[in-house]
Write a structure and sequence with these properties.
There is one protein chain. The chain is α+β, with helices and mostly antiparallel strands. It has a domain of 100 residues: Beta Barrel (Lipocalin). 30% of the residues lie in helices and 42% in strands. It has 3 helices and 10 strands. An 8-stranded antiparallel beta barrel has the order 1-4-5-6-7-8-9-10. The longest helix has 25 residues. It is elongated and about 50 Å long.
Length: 158
């Protein structure tokens, strides 16, 4: 009986330590350095973009060329480069050049997710954003399910 109790205590304490470690690693200001949306990847640091053949074929069918496709996706994904996430012990702040919103977050190690509750517009009601996340090699990776694809953001501490 004592062995079971000890194992349960180790599991509970270990989980709380893991959450605390992730929370302390998370604290600070993070900038987005790359974004992947569905099949398109854009690295802001190197200004390089990957467009798969399927995406290019869709662009060609619409009468445009690859230069148009590159500029289009750089514009769409490039807007994300201006966002920063700042985490402290109890809150998160999402800011861009145009706006700043402060909210709260909760880490769920059992689901490897982080819930952000942030007002997305001035005076707007808070929206719950649930991201899958990892912190590895000093990079924070968020993955969120959109309507019919995934968006992945890679962030680096400033």
């Amino acid at each position: 009986m004592n062995v079971k109790l000890n194992l349960l205590l180790i599991l509970v304490v270990g989980t709380n330590i893991a959450v605390a470690q992730d929370q302390s690693l998370l604290q600070g200001k993070w900038k987005i350095i790359s974004a992947k949306e569905d099949r398109v990847y854009y690295n802001f640091a190197t200004d390089s973009i990957f467009l798969p053949k399927e995406v290019l074929n869709e662009i060609y069918k619409d009468g445009h060329d690859s230069t148009f496709a590159v500029e289009l996706y750089k514009s769409i994904l490039g807007s994300l480069r201006n966002y920063r996430f700042s985490f402290d012990k109890d809150s998160v702040c999402l800011e861009s050049k145009a706006a700043k919103s402060k909210g709260v977050y909760h880490i769920s190690n059992s689901q490897d997710s982080i819930d952000l509750l942030i007002p997305m517009t001035v005076g707007g009601s808070p929206q719950l954003l649930r991201y899958g996340y990892t912190i590895m090699d000093k990079l924070l990776t968020f993955t969120i399910r959109m309507d019919n694809y995934y968006r992945t953001l890679v962030l680096q501490k400033e």
